[in-house]
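User: Fold this; tokens only.

Assistant: Input:
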Amino acid sequence: MTARVDNERRVELTRTRTSVGLWFGLIGAPAAALASTVINYSAVDRACVGNNSLVLHLLTLLFLIVALAAGFTAWWYRQRIGDWPATAAGMLPRARFMTTVGILLAIVATFGMILQWIPIFFLGPCYGT
């Protein structure tokens, strides 16, 4: 019975949808944090001209939701994969590693985006210009 369950897990990991989900869980949050930094940096001039920081808040919130979705995706796949010996080789331990690192990266990226969001609340878009 255990071999059948393990085989079903292996078959599920070979599907393209599962592979894309694992990669999104791994690199989705850092990519969202990078995109948030780059796009918010570009949007500051526009927000300063209009003296309205709403666009900066919306962009940050959007990328924060993407980072949280990536973290949730990694957590969801980790729950589906289940427990596996850390010294084993193959697809299941590799997927477990990807999901673990994805969860940790999502936590760090989310925390970083929240830290970058705080000055928008207190300083506004035109501070220092």
